[in-house]
Amino acid sequence: MMVRTSTLAALGAALVAGLGLPALAADTTPAQQLARFSTQAGAAGDAARGQRFFDGTHGGEWSCSSCHGKPPTGPGRHADTGKAIQPLAPAFNPKAFTSTARVDKWLRRNCNDVLKRECSAAEKADVMAYLNGFK
């Protein structure tokens, strides 16, 4: 009886580890992120507006492109710390925008750095439309 319980527990742990981690690491796609932000904004994202937003400084020192590059298809570098940043455009980085939690965390941080506030859903939709347009 003890062997069965521990065997079941081990199988359960393996199942959770095997199935749970990939779901957490890649629970979404860039297209789903665009759809999410467009729905929240009540309008489809606009890539041209997204590019202007991405390249603009919005009255501050930094733009999105200050760290992510212009265009955001190659590695970037944090403007303050110099830390390397993977390409932001999903076509050039298959992991980009595949975790809802990471997307929300980094957009909150980066929008505060660039805008001194959170980005609106419309701004997020526009930037996602821009980033998803790279092939």
Main features:
mainly alpha, globular, 135 residues, two-stranded antiparallel ribbon, Cytochrome Bc1 Complex, Chain D, domain 2, 3% strand
Task: Give an overview in words.
The protein is 58% helix and 3% strand. The protein has 135 residues and is an all-alpha fold. The chain has one domain (28-132): Orthogonal Bundle (Cytochrome Bc1 Complex, Chain D, domain 2), CATH 1.10.760.10. The chain has a two-stranded antiparallel ribbon. Strand 1 (76-77) and strand 2 (84-85) form a beta hairpin. It is globular.
- Named at the architecture level, the CATH assignment is Orthogonal Bundle
CATH homology-level superfamily: Cytochrome c-like domain
Biggest sheet record:
2 strands, antiparallel
Mean pLDDT: 85
| Spans of at least 5 consecutive residues with low confidence | 1-24
What is the molecular shape? globular
Summary?
This protein is an all-alpha fold and 135 residues long.
Can you lay out the helices and strands and say which pair or pack?
Elements: H1 2-25, H2 30-41, H3 47-55, H4 64-68, E1 76-77, E2 84-85, H5 100-115, H6 121-132
